[in-house]
Amino acid sequence: MIIMYYISNYIEEAVIKVDEINNISIAKKYPELKEYRVSIDGDMVKGSFDYHNIPRQITKEEYDTYGITWKHGKEDIKYSIL
Predict the structure, then answer these.
(1) Can you give the pLDDT at residue 52?
(2) pLDDT of residue 48
(3) pLDDT reading at 76 higher than 70
(4) 14 by DSSP, 3-state: which?
(5) Measured distance CA(80)–CA(46) in Å, rounded
(6) Quick one: how far is CA 70 from the chain centroid?
């Protein structure tokens, strides 16, 4: 059973931490990188097939380093920003 997982949403230029036990999700958008709550059932977390917006799973390390060592590239290609 997955309790907490991390996803990347390149259309939103965000990474999201999803906590299923407490039913909350926290997002960080580039370039601000401030964490804020988002709907666990919203498009940022679930994606939207109308816009080919399909979030992909990432690691905790990728979540933690988003906007510091990497950000989204064209069509969700991860690239370094250092």
Answers:
(1) 74
(2) 85
(3) no
(4) strand
(5) 26
(6) 13
Per the prediction, the chain carries an average pLDDT of 88
The two structure tokens encoding residue 57: 């799973």
For residue 26, CA distances in Å to 19, 73, 81 come to 8, 22, 23
Question: Helices marked H in 1-82 — which ranges?
Answer: 43-46, 60-65
Amino acid found at 40: I
Kind plus residue range of the DSSP H or E element containing 29: strand 24-29
Please list the helix, strand and coil fractions of the chain in percent, rounded to the nearest 5, in that order: 20, 40, 40
Q: What single letter denotes the amino acid at residue 14?
A: A
Q: Token pair of 29, please?
A: 């958008």
Place of tokens 């969700």: 76
Q: For strand 70-72 and strand 36-38, is the pairing parallel, antiparallel, or unpaired?
A: unpaired
pLDDT digits (tens, 9 = 90+) for 4-44: 999 999 888 999 999 999 999 999 999 999 999 999 999 99
